[in-house]
């Protein structure tokens, strides 16, 4: 198990599944195509939904992608915790009625233990408590020790969203060590502590649900695999969170240098540094995919990200426009996988800087109004301090 850069991890995963007969497809846009149910792409399988449902025929029955994703439901937590982010990449291998559990689970194990050389004793598979088939594959075919296979309930290991295709999951956890644990003798995957980190999720779409608890076997069974690239990089680089992964750390350092503050010197400034690093990544990719700042829909998501980053830049004492320079670092760190960021860099920077200038103008206008109100209050004798 050797230190591996985020960019090399992405490439090694995609090449591995390409060697298993998968069509390597570049990331789809963050803007959903012909899908009005989503504002933005939030999961690796989201652009492939119509292949899973059979509405469209996939270019190949096996595909692998590293998909750009945006989730802003926890935006208020970004920066204040070390684990929340709005932009992330999802590694995935997918089967549309082709292979199933017998192939998917051994390939996951092969990639983690033989390609990445993660020690087997550090890995703990979990299965849905009623999925004896997956349990048997882990135990008898792959040879995982029984005391390292965990059965979990429906809440943890069964994917279902109302009526439609659904099925059990089999996840793989990485043991980060006792120092992250709760100390309980029963501590294992599924515990609320931070010791066991889920790094791989195999979803077996094998049932059709009527939404009322009745399930029938699907004739065409599918594999939907998801693994967070940043989370895997944390494991391979021996760091605690995504902000310490090499590519994001380089973005964060550029912000630190501009603000003349050092990361981990001050908890308050660390919040601002993390927010700017995350939001500049998300904004660069959104603009690159054609999203423009506005007051509604995905344009509002972008505007909120940009203005939140601007505000925290000012809190750090950064004067003048700076987001364009940080976005340039974002493009550089993603050049190998996303050369389009560099190709569109001038345009992306222009949109970001224009929004930053609008934000500054809005703040200045607000301050002028506040100064005027304060002056009027003083004039009318209403500025006395109340006890």
| Main sheet attributes: strand count, strand direction, barrel closure | 9 strands, mixed
CATH superfamily of the largest domain: Bira Bifunctional Protein, Domain 2
User: Gap between N and C termini, in Å?
Assistant: 63 Å
Total number of beta strands? 9
Which terms summarize this structure?
387 residues; alpha+beta; BirA Bifunctional Protein, domain 2; 2 domains; 9-stranded mixed beta sheet; 12 helices; 42% helix; globular
What is the topology?
Layout: H1 6-18, E1 23-24, H2 49-53, E2 62-70, E3 87-96, H3 101-115, E4 123-128, H4 132-142, E5 150-152, H5 154-157, E6 158-159, E7 164-175, E8 196-209, E9 215-228, H6 229-237, H7 246-259, H8 267-288, H9 297-315, H10 323-333, H11 339-343, H12 345-379
Parallel strand pairs: 1-2, 4-5
Antiparallel strand pairs: 2-3, 3-9, 4-7, 6-7, 7-8, 8-9
Helix pairs in contact: 3-4, 7-8, 7-10, 8-9, 8-10, 8-12, 9-12, 10-12
Description:
It is a single chain. By secondary structure, the protein is α+β, with helices and mostly antiparallel strands. It folds into 2 domains: 6-237, BirA Bifunctional Protein, domain 2; 245-373, no CATH class. 42% of the residues lie in helices and 19% in strands. Strands 1, 2, 3, 4, 5, 6, 7, 8 and 9 form a 9-stranded mixed beta sheet that branches. Strand 6 (158-159) and strand 7 (164-175) form a beta hairpin. The chain starts with 5 loop residues before the first helix and ends in an 8-residue tail after the last helix.
């Amino acid at each position: 198990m050797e230190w591996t850069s985020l960019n090399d991890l992405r490439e090694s995963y995609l090449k591995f599944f390409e060697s298993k007969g998968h069509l390597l497809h570049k990331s789809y846009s963050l803007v959903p195509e012909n899908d009005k149910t989503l504002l933005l792409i939030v999961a690796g399988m989201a652009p492939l939904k119509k292949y899973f449902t059979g509405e469209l025929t996939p270019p190949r029955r096996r595909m692998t992608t590293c998909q750009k994703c945006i989730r802003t439901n926890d935006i208020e937590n970004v920066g204040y915790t070390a684990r929340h982010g709005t932009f992330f990449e999802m590694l995935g291998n997918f089967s549309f009625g082709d292979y199933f559990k017998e192939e998917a689970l051994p390939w996951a194990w092969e990639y983690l233990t033989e390609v990445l050389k993660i020690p087997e004793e550090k890995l703990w598979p979990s299965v849905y408590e009623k999925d004896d088939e997956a349990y048997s594959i882990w135990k008898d075919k792959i040879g995982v020790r029984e005391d390292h296979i965990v059965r979990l309930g429906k809440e943890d290991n069964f994917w279902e969203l109302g009526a439609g295709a659904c099925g059990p999951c089999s996840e793989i956890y990485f043991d980060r060590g006792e120092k992250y644990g709760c100390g309980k003798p029963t501590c294992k995957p599924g515990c609320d502590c931070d010791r066991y980190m889920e790094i791989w999720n195999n979803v077996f779409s094998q049932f059709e649900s009527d939404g009322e608890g009745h399930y029938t076997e699907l004739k065409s069974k599918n594999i939907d695999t998801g693994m967070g690239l940043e989370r895997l990089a944390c494991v391979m680089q021996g760091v605690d969170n995504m902000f310490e992964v090499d590519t994001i750390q380089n973005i964060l350092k550029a912000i630190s240098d501009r603000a003349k503050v050092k990361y981990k010197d001050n908890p308050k400034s660390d919040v601002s540094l993390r927010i700017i690093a995350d939001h500049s990544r998300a904004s660069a990719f959104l603009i690159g995919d054609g999203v423009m700042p506005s007051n509604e829909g995905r344009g509002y998501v972008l505007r909120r990200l940009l203005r939140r980053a601007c505000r925290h830049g000012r809190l750090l004492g950064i004067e003048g426009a700076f987001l364009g320079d940080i976005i340039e670092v974002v493009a550089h760190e993603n050049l190998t996988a996303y050369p389009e960021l560099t190709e569109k860099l001038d345009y992306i920077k222009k949109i970001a800087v224009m929004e930053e200038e609008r934000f500054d103008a809005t703040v200045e206008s607000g301050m002028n109004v506040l100064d005027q109100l304060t002056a009027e209050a003083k004039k009318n004798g209403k500025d006395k301090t109340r006890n």
